[in-house]
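Title: Comparing notes on inverse folding

I've been comparing how different people in this forum approach sequence design from structure. To keep things fair, I'm posting one structure and asking everyone to reply with a full sequence. Here's the target:
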């Protein structure tokens, strides 16, 4: 059973309010803020999730959802199709204008590392560019500067219709 069919956008809107100034969800039943549970997934990334609950007959169902996804659902009226991206890279800033629905690839390109597809080849002492197209690595050549390698990667992205976000 998909919990998103039980915890519909209508359910989220009926049972929770959203404080635009603080970026927090508020439970309508007791007017308390829905707590943000934080988990550290790596040394620099903190994921926040919300625990939604719904009583059906005598059972209570729980859904641990990404907090940004719940805010996205509340603001835009549908669950995100892919993943929720925090535009400014602050995973605890859940204001609606900081959230967007993007693919996993676009979300990973939004990281601080601007050298996507560019690597230093120690053995040849040059910058190497490569791209992954439909699961296969495509070699884009060796370059004497990082800027040349980045340009080769960007050109390959544009030629293959792959979003290039920087």
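Reply #1:
Here's my take.
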């Amino acid at each position: 059973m998909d919990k998103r069919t039980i915890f519909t956008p209508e359910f989220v809107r009926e049972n929770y309010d959203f404080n635009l100034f603080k970026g927090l969800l508020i439970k309508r039943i007791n007017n308390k803020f829905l707590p943000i549970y934080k988990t550290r997934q790596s040394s620099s990334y903190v994921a926040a999730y919300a625990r939604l609950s719904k009583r059906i007959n005598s059972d209570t169902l729980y859904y641990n959802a990404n907090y940004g996804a719940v805010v996205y659902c509340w603001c835009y009226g549908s669950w995100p199709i892919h993943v929720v991206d925090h535009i400014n890279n602050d995973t605890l800033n859940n204001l609606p204008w900081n959230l967007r629905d993007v693919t996993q690839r676009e979300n990973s390109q939004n990281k601080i590392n601007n050298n996507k597809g560019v690597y230093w080849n120690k053995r040849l002492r040059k910058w190497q560019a490569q791209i992954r197209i439909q699961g296969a690595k495509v070699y884009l050549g060796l370059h004497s500067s990082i800027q040349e390698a980045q340009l080769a990667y960007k050109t390959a992205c544009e030629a293959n219709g792959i979003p290039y976000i920087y």
